[in-house]
Known about the structure:
The complex is a heterodimer of chains A (413) and B (80).
Chain A: H1 11-26, H2 31-38, H3 44-65, H4 79-96, H5 100-108, H6 114-132, H7 135-142, H8 161-181, H9 192-198, H10 206-220, H11 230-239, H12 247-266, H13 274-283, H14 289-297, H15 301-318, H16 332-338, H17 342-363, H18 367-377, H19 380-401
Chain B: H1 15-43, H2 53-74
Helix pairs in contact in B: 1-2
Amino acid sequence: xxxxITAPQWVGVLVGFAVGGLAExxxxxxxxxxxxxxxxxDRLFIGCVTVVGAFGVLLLYGLYAxxxxxxxxxxxxxxxxxxxxxxxxxxxLALSGYLPGTELMALGEGRREALFVIPAGLLGAASxxxxxxxxxxxxxxxxxxxxxxxxxxxxxxxxxxFGLFLGAIPYAxxxxxxxxxxxxxxxxxxxxxxxxxxxxxxxxxxxLHDVREDTVAYLLEGSIAKRGGRAERVAYAWSSEPNxxxxxxxxVALLLAITVVLAMVLHQVFGESTTYSWLVGxxxxxxxxxxxxxxxxVGWEPFSDIGTFLGAFFAAVLxxxxxxxxxxVIPPSWRNRFGNDQWRRALGLFAGGYLMLFGAxxxxxxxxxxxxxGIVQMAASGIYFGxxxxxxxxxxxxxxxxxxxxxxxxxxx
Amino acid sequence: METLRNKPTSDRCSAPEVKAGRVIAGMMILxxxxxxxxxxxxxxxxxxxxxxxxxxxLTLIVPGFLLLGVTAYYIDKRPY
Lengths: 413, 80
């Protein structure tokens, strides 16, 4: 194979900047977007991750087959640790509305909630560092450990590059099919293909019209955007777009896929949560076994995390105008269920952020390292983790939010 | 019924706000470039793993102050 390129660590800032900026425009920095995913009311994340995965896997293994060296980073599949970590991650996600990467994006959007959820994440990462030190932690990562395997049980090292590319084709088709068959919004009865054939995006559907208006309302709530301004139109046209296969969403997915693959060409897989363990090692627990692993193995992640924050900050101030200047903005799903009390929300954020990072470090990755980068690499662990997280978060959200409305401008009864 | 298409558009930016917006945009672009330059200088163009923690904290300085500055400007403005 071709020689490996290894870019300097600071290039991670640029890679993170691209991911943070694109994802912020998507709307995932807003906790309501993640809560609605868990409540199965807005499946944009599913559609986009599958489309990114489909583009990314073809690009990744196509380039690899053509002789370009890759810094693969398949996470090991240890059933108990990844499974239990996924369960904790899913509960934390439903409770807080954040992923490790979107916490940084939320800081870039000037969300006050980030000031609670990031320290909670550091505490969660520290707890895993402590647990890893004893027998229970070792059992979780070593028991039923199949190693770094692909979804079909093969390994990258044991498979010819062209064979990997051939395997990527049906895999990508399955991912595209999943995106096709899961409409973004539940009351939208069409699948995207039907919408394309009809030449419309279901615009005549009044339920869809309402949900798009509500999506714009929660995305811009408390922000620096002006009513009737460009940011509002951009949010309506891009961020509430119901069709996963619309030009704009496909373009964003393509750019993200290129960025994720570029990261593997240049240095390492894209991830977000290792930085938390690295920081715990740097600031508090340097002599613990897991800290030593994190300190030695972390690459440009701390820099790409700064880039993620900066990219979201840049996009929020200059493009999407969703910068909230640290005003109190409580996600509609939460306040319709639990009220506007800031301390109650802070408690939920802290518990959710803690569980999420504890679970992410137990599973050795988060939505970026495990799910996004894992799906792009056809990693069995990434798919297993992703399925556990989604199933758990949907159940947890059902328990937490019940039938409470998600409407942004719900009038008090 | 008020929809996105017929919402009032009276709260457009005033001239000073437009000017301030340009200053903020300039600061954001310069701040982003400065962050990359600081990261490159602080890490000494290192390519390996296990980054230097001091280099990382140095890289945080520009975006940190930028965040404070932009927040200080927008915190008094009327939210959406």
